[in-house]
Inverse folding.
């Protein structure tokens, strides 16, 4: 499944539409897959504005991470594979975050640290 | 039989085998249990058969500490008592509620859930509920679409509830009035309880009414069944023979006042629609999200549950603690209902997008026993000459920490299951914040002021609900609760009253 189609399919109920320009943003890293800046689950309940607002608040809370490269590295180390594989890996990591208590409270939301960083990464690209 | 105490010759003496003071859920349940026993039951009710402002005002009192409702608005002073306006939420206490928990001060009842289970079955009938079944598996076979959230059941379980707004005043008036051995006296407000010389046996109680009549009631056994605040008031005000009041040698009467904290605590946003009727309030059995015993022990928290309301509706509601502050009870209720109607209309406008999958989570949680949370007597007296009640409602850090932790646990489980994401309300976000929000509602559940303990230094009544040191004075109702549990009190207080009733049958 193509990346764009997946987003539309997964977010069919939500009102979100992440700007397409975002998908082609180049971080200067050949291995970078822009999917990692897409908080899939959160996009089902939030619009882009909310996601970036949460991202900003995350960065205020963790100013040391206010850097695209840092965020990418912290979100996921090995990002190779198809889009589906990448999404599966991220989802697995988010589930694990909740299981091991790797969570963060942003604006009252109990979030996996991975997905909060995804919001932050999107924010840095806006 | 029914007698209007206003119409009796002044200074009448009424005699019976047992005297039940108060015709609410507890008093009527006991009276019915004694029907056709051949024993003469005197059932005293301060009011008549309907709401009267003058009588309701006898329940007026003061409150300090944590903001509370006007006291006279929280109880109804006529035959049937507060069942006249209750919402009918019923669920038994959990076995853990009766246990001694090291992290909950003064916890541990002298009885276990097994001791009260047989009476829960009887209480179900009195309250006209269904069978004594509170297991989700049972109800899933009875009702379609009770699908539980896929949460880890080692952390979160579904606590079932049954509902019936049984109005005792309507349901049982004829049975009581037509009974040959139950003698109901309306407009009979107890103003004094008189004991023998060494205050070990009650000889009589004095009743008064606004018609200026005063009567005496004598019986072998007396049961105070007028609610946790009024029972306390009567014990403390009956101080002509015992300076601190009856049963109060150890200064426990009135202390440990507990409520159920009912507060909007968080929002749960589901990632996708989840078809279920399990969590909605529609009069049929439903569930609330509860924390397992093991996790309560591990986290050293109180017992509480989270219920779900559609966020599009709930966000337009005003906290009850603000809405129900009117001195005029009827006006307060009118305001409350108007707000509900307005919220429903506003919710209709928000019927698209992810908010249709969002819920407000409201906690209902026990309050930790706290001696500083108490009922005492005020210097002001009511129209019948009895000092009014004064409430000092006091919450603790354990109450707050437990609310936060329960929400955090559910929030993490919702994330783990990828069911949704949870947003904590402002007052829960800072771990060091022990303040309480304006919307700190209470359930109108008065408990603990005559708590049960077999140690007279720690409780007012023993395991049989007998007042320590007074062999024929007993207390029925939620005032006897040692801890307040996560469930609304009525089912348990009726069960406990029926247990007391059976115990007394062996004494009369």
């Amino acid at each position: 499944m193509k990346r764009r189609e997946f987003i539309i399919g997964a977010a069919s109920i939500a009102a979100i539409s992440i700007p397409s320009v975002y998908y082609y943003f180049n971080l200067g890293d050949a291995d970078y897959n822009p999917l990692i800046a897409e908080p899939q689950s959160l996009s089902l309940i939030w619009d882009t504005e909310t996601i970036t607002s949460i991202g900003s608040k995350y960065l205020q809370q963790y100013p040391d991470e206010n850097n695209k490269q840092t965020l990418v590295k912290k979100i996921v180390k090995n990002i190779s594979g198809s889009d589906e594989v990448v999404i599966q890996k991220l989802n697995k990591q988010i589930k694990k975050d909740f299981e091991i208590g790797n969570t963060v409270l942003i604006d009252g939301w109990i979030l996996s640290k991975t997905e909060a960083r995804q919001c932050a990464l999107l924010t840095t690209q806006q | 039989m029914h007698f209007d105490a206003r119409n009796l010759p002044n200074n009448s003496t009424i005699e019976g085998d047992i005297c039940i003071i108060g015709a609410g859920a507890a008093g009527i349940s006991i009276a019915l249990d004694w029907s056709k026993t051949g024993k003469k039951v005197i059932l005293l009710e301060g009011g008549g058969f309907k709401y009267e402002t003058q009588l309701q005002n006898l329940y007026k009192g003061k409150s300090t500490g944590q903001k509370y409702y006007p006291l006279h608005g929280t109880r109804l002073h006529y035959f049937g008592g507060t069942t006249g306006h209750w919402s009918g939420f019923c669920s038994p206490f959990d076995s853990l509620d009766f246990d001694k928990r090291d992290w909950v001060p003064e916890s541990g009842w002298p009885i276990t859930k097994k001791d009260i289970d047989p009476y829960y079955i009887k209480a179900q009938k009195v309250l006209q509920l269904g069978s004594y079944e509170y297991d989700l598996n049972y109800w899933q076979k009875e009702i379609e679409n009770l699908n539980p959230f896929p949460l880890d059941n080692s952390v979160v379980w579904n606590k079932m509830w049954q509902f019936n707004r049984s109005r005792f005043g309507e349901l049982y008036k004829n049975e009581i009035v037509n009974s040959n051995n139950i003698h109901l006296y309306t407009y009979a407000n107890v103003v004094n309880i008189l004991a023998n010389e060494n205050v070990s046996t009650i000889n009589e109680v004095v009743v008064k009414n606004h018609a200026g009549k005063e009567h005496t009631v004598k019986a072998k056994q007396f049961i105070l069944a007028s609610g946790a605040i009024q029972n306390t008031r009567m014990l403390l005000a009956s101080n002509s023979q015992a300076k601190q009041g009856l049963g109060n040698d150890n200064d426990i009467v009135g202390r440990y006042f507990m409520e159920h904290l009912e507060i909007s605590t968080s929002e749960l946003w589901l990632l996708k629609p989840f078809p279920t009727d399990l969590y909605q309030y529609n009069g049929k059995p439903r569930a609330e999200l509860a924390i397992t015993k093991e996790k309560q022990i591990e986290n050293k928290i109180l017992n509480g549950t989270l219920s779900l309301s559609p966020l599009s509706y709930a966000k337009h509601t005003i906290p009850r603690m603000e809405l129900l502050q009117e001195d005029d009870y009827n006006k307060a209720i009118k305001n409350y209902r108007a707000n509900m109607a307005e919220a429903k209309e506003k919710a209709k406008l928000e019927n698209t997008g992810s908010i249709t999958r969002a819920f407000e989570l409201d906690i209902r949680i026990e309050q930790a026993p706290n001696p500083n949370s108490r009922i005492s007597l005020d210097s002001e007296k009511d129209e019948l000459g009895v000092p009014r009640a004064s409430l000092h409602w006091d919450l603790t850090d354990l109450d707050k920490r437990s609310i936060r932790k329960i929400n955090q646990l559910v929030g993490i489980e919702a994330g783990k299951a990828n069911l949704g994401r949870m947003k904590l309300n402002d007052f829960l976000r800072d771990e060091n914040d022990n303040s309480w929000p304006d919307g700190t509602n209470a359930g109108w559940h008065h408990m603990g002021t005559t708590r049960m303990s077999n140690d007279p230094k720690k409780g007012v009544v023993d395991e049989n609900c007998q007042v320590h040191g007074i062999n024929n004075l007993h207390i029925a109702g939620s005032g006897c609760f040692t801890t307040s549990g996560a469930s609304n009190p009525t089912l348990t207080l009726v069960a406990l009253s029926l247990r007391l009733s059976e115990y007394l049958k062996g004494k009369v």
In short: The mean pLDDT of chain B is 97. The interface with chain A takes residues 266, 269-273, 353-354, 357-358, 408, 411-413, 415-416, 418, 420-426, 428-429 of chain B (CB under 8 Å). Chain B is about 25% helix and 25% strand.
